[in-house]
Structure formats: C-alpha cells, structure tokens
Amino acid sequence: MTKTIIGKATVIKSNKDYYKIKKETILIACHTHPDLVIVIDKIKGIITELDNKLCHAAIVAREFNKPLLMGVENATKKFKTGDRIIVDFENKIVKKIK
Amino acid sequence: MINLLKHTYLLDLEAIKNDIERLWKRYQKIISDKESSWEDLNEARAILYFVGHLYSEKIALEAIDRRIKFVKPKITLDKFFLIIDRNDVKNFKKYGKDEKFNKLKEFYLTVKNIKNRVENGVYLDEERFNKAYLRLRPKNHL
C-alpha cells in the first residue's frame, strides 16, 4: 500500500476540469465524477472531502489501484491547482510543500 | 422507492434490478416529455437523488455492511470491495463457494451499474435533467 506521495495538485471545481489535466497530478475534489476515468492514467492519487466506500472516487481508486484519501475537510478550499503537496495516507495528512 | 427498500431488506436481487429499472424509466420519461410539469421534474429530481446517491452510496453500503459478517471465511468490508473491484481471481476461488458472498457480489455489481450509468453521454443524464429543471423552475421558487 502506498504510504506517501508528492506531486502537483489539481483541484476539481467542475467536471470540465478533468479535461484540462495533461500531466501527472494529485486530484483534489469534493467528490468525484465518472469523467475521472478519462484521465485516470495521469492521476497519482486522489483526495476527496466526501468519505464513502461506494462513492465514485472509492470505486475508481480500487479498480485502478490508485491511492485514495477521503474525508479531508475543505480540501478544495485549502489547496489550489498547481500547489505542490505531500499526502501521507497512513496518517491521513495532506500538506502544502515548497 | 419503498419497494426498492423493501426488496433490499429481502435482498431479492431480481426485484431490486426491476425496481431500479422502473425508477430509471420513469426518470427518463419525465425528462424527455415536453409536457412534464414542475411537479414531475421534482419527482425526477427525487429519483435522481435517491438512485444516484442515497440508495447507491448509503443504503446499499449499509445493506452490504450488515450482511458481510455472514460470509465465510471471514472477510472485511474493504477486502470484499477490493476483491470485486480488482477482479481478484484468487479470492473469487476462495469465496466463490459461499452463497452469501456471491449474492452480495451480485448486489454490489448491480449498485455499481447505477454508479456507472451514462445516458446521452452524461452521467445519469444529468444534463437533460438540469435543462428541463431550469426551464420549468418558477421565478419565486425558494
């Protein structure tokens, strides 16, 4: 199981944002949408505000073996697209790094 | 919706599938019919919320969680989802003889089928719903 990842964040505000992903990224969303699978090969990890084992993010993460951290409060407000972040899946911590 | 809940308590898979299809067809009819009223659109909204969120993410999860303890050999909820989502052949052999595992698996796949449903290129045909909803929404609606 992946313990930690580092990368640039992409914050999803609308479904159109999925189509803007061109490079490998850590996705941050309130909850995800099926359009996520279109760019799944560019997703290094997924962070969601919603915490539910049957939401799209959880299903897609299991299907495509992507690390997922759910239940991160206000994640879409705390971070912005382009932020370099570190995600500690074991301790459930997301931090912005310089 | 009450029938779907009842059949979920019974875990009657065929009835569950039929109930979901019935709701889906009703939803499609409302958003396709130009004669649909504001009240009809709110019925469609209720179906969308119930099928797309309440049922598929909360009720179904509770239904599986409540029954997973009866599967043999013992299995956690997370492992159950992982085996199915990863199409884990080794574990399918291990649990495949357990009738309860197979039933829960089919139920989960039915629920996943809702989550993956796309119509007119859009998840749960939400674009057509949104257009119809906005067209009929009264100006003074709260």
Largest interface: A-B, 13 and 17 residues
Strand proportion of chain B, as a percent range, falls in under 5%
Mean pLDDT of chain A: 92
The shape of chain A is globular
Sketch the major β-sheet of chain B.
Answer: 2 strands, antiparallel
Number of continuous helical runs of chain B:
7
Radius of gyration of chain B: 18 Å
Condensed summary:
With 98 residues, chain A is of the alpha/beta class. Chain A has helices at residues 56-64, 75-78; strands at 4-12, 25-29, 43-48, 68-69, 84-88, 93-96.
Chart the SSEs and their pairings.
The complex is a heterodimer of chains A (98) and B (142).
Chain A: E1 4-12, E2 25-29, E3 43-48, H1 56-64, E4 68-69, H2 75-78, E5 84-88, E6 93-96
Parallel strand pairs in A: 1-2, 2-3, 3-4
Antiparallel strand pairs in A: 1-5, 5-6
Chain B: H1 2-10, H2 13-32, H3 38-67, H4 77-85, H5 89-95, H6 99-115, E1 118-119, E2 122-123, H7 126-136
Helix pairs in contact in B: 1-2, 2-3, 3-6, 3-7
What does this structure look like?
The complex is a heterodimer of chains A (98) and B (142). The longest helix of chain A is centred in the middle third of the chain and has 9 residues, at 56-64. Chain A has 98 residues and is an alpha/beta fold. In chain A, a hairpin with a 4-residue loop joins strand 5 and strand 6 (93-96). Chain A is globular and about 30 Å long. Helices cover 13% and strands 32% of the residues of chain A. Chain A has a 6-stranded mixed beta sheet, with helices on one face. Chain B is an all-alpha fold and 142 residues long. Helices cover 73% and strands 3% of the residues of chain B. Chain B has 7 helices and 2 strands. Chain B has helices spanning 2-10, 13-32, 38-67, 77-85, 89-95, 99-115, 126-136; strands at 118-119, 122-123. In chain B, a hairpin with a 2-residue loop joins strand 1 (118-119) and strand 2 (122-123). In chain B, helix 3 runs antiparallel to helix 6 (99-115). The two termini of chain B are 25 Å apart. The chains are: A alpha/beta (98), B mainly alpha (142). The A-B interface holds A 33-35, 52-56, 58-59, 62-63, 65 and B 56-58, 60-61, 77-78, 81-82, 85-86, 111-112, 115-116, 118, 123.
